[in-house]
Amino acid sequence: KQEVTQIPAALSVPEGENLVLNCSFTDSAIYNLQWFRQDPGKGLTSLLLIQSSQREQTSGRLNASLDKSSGRSTLYIAASQPGDSATYLCAVRGNYGQNFVFGPGTRLSVLP
Amino acid sequence: EAGVAQSPRYKIIEKRQSVAFWCNPISGHATLYWYQQILGQGPKLLIQFQNNGVVDDSQLPKDRFSAERLKGVDSTLKIQPAKLEDSAVYLCASSLEMGRKNTEAFFGQGTRLTVV
Fold first, then answer.
1. 3-state secondary structure of A84
2. At a CB cut-off of 8 Å and minimum separation 6, what does B61 contact?
3. Distance of alpha carbon A27 from its chain centroid, rounded?
4. B111-115/B10-13 β-pairing
5. Nearest CB to B42: which of A41, A49, A105?
6. Facing B104 at nearest CB: one of A49, A99, A105
7. For chain A, first and last CA: distance in Å?
8. A87-109 tens-digit pLDDT
9. pLDDT digits (tens, 9 = 90+) for B47-105
10. Contact partners, residue A24, CB within 8 Å, separation at least 6
11. Per DSSP, what are the bridge partners of residue B114?
């Protein structure tokens, strides 16, 4: 059974810092991995999707990497802004099932 | 392109009452998911449809939860009777179809259920 963990659970940084969020999964037989952002009281917004054959994906100030063999993904946020404050969730989709298994999320606060 | 639509946004009911949630996925998306998200946790899959067929409902509490997607488009999720521990956000998501590696999932705004 796939299990997904995220470290840290919460993070508070001053504006302008570069930061890294970590996601680990126990079963490396994944189809793809997706990073989401969730604002309080809102649904999930897709940030980046990494195929199982890819090593990384970039969108603006965001860069996500995937190391399938070690069961890890990182989300790198460059030059953080107060508007980046939200909960960040990673989710993996297995090879033999198409549903996503989510981590518990990292709650990020970027202070002005 | 319109996103995943869910209603209602909020619902407060007493325990043992019934409640229903509605979801309209993105047009053309064959796969539809219902997730339950308890405060402070990541979403947990309740049920997954491919068109109007159930792919995975292994984590759906079938004694009280039911879901249907009759015409392979919109879907309803029902809880009857509700318990206090059902208080959560219910998220609907859709994706283009199973079997495509680059299929991205898109989520609705969710329905926040409070059972008192």
1. helix
2. none
3. 17
4. parallel
5. A105
6. A49
7. 41
8. 999 999 887 666 789 999 999 99
9. 999 888 998 999 999 999 999 998 889 999 999 999 999 999 999 999 887 555 557 88
10. A4, A5, A6, A7, A71, A72, A73
11. B12
